[in-house]
Amino acid sequence: MIETKSKILSLPQFLPTRERFKEKGKTLVLTNGCFDLLHLGHIRYLAQAKALGDILVVGLNSDSSTRKIKGPERPIIPEDERAQLVAALVFVDYVIIFSETTAQGLVTALKPEIYVKGGDYSREGKALPEAPEVATYGGRVVILPYTEGLSSSTIIHKIRERYGPLPKVTGSGSLP
User: Fold this and answer.
1) Which of 2-16, 65-79, 85-99, 144-158 is most confident?
2) Bridge partners (DSSP) listed for residue 143
3) pLDDT, position 152
4) Which residues of 78-111 are buried (b: 16+ CB within 10 A; e: fewer)?
5) Phi-psi category of 138—alpha, beta or left, where left has phi over 0 and alpha has psi -120 to 50?
6) Is the CB of residue 34 less than 8 Å from the CB of residue 69?
7) Residue 107 and residue 150: Cα distance in Å, rounded?
8) Which CATH superfamily is domain 5-163 in?
9) What sign results for the dihedral spanned by CA atoms 152, 99, 136, 8?
10) Can you tell me whether residue 28 is helix, strand or coil?
11) How many angstroms separate the CA atoms of 112 and 56, rounded?
12) pLDDT tens string 118-162
């Protein structure tokens, strides 16, 4: 069994740890996202993010913020399970669940040396709301390359295309 509970902390629980890392001169890398259906694109992205520094913290959107970002049918996987899945990855050091739609609060509180986002921001021309905050304390923003076709939304679309509407799942979690 992989121990993940010690890697999943609230922001207040993590702040003293952050201070210890800062005192030791460790480079904190922060990224964030919904990570609804964990896939190869997420794995590659998180591994690349970890390679940029010493400590990788993943801000995980809560169920409520994921719904605001992705729509009422999301998330598919509840936040506590998503947090455990992400924390189980060897290159992820900590996971912090947050309820806002952006990670601006996490960036402000943690002041990571490096803030990382996926290439969908540059590809789609989306503004990165956390970037101005990172600039205020001299941090660095890194946009990692987007891997075409690897997304939770693509997986959901493929499932719907291939299997159409599915019958309701029973209380035991299995199809009738």
Assistant:
1) 85-99
2) 117
3) 64
4) ebeebbbbbbebeebbbbbbbeeebbbebbebbb
5) left
6) yes
7) 26
8) HUPs (3.40.50.620)
9) negative
10) strand
11) 10
12) 876 554 556 788 999 999 999 999 998 876 666 766 777 777 777
Instruction: Of 146, 147, 56, 158, give the one whose Cα is nearest residue 110.
Output: 56
Q: Report d(CA 61, CA 52) in Å as an integer.
A: 22
Beta-bridge partner residues of 138: none
User: Which residue blocks in 24-118 are alpha helix, DSSP H?
Assistant: 40-50, 63-70, 79-87, 104-110
Upstream peptide bond of 75 is cis (omega within 30 degrees of 0): yes
Residue whose C-alpha is closest to residue 29's, from 43, 45, 41: 45
Adjacency order of strands within the sheet including 140-144: 94-98, 55-61, 28-33, 114-118, 140-144
Residues 85-99 have a mean pLDDT of 97
Domain boundaries of the chain, sorted by first residue: 5-163
Looking at residue 15, its amino acid is: L
Which distant-in-sequence residues (6+ apart) come within 8 Å of 5 by Cβ? none
| Beta bridge partners of residue 32, listed in sequence order | 59
More confident residue, 32 or 119: 32
Backbone angles phi, psi at 47, to 5 degrees: -65, -40
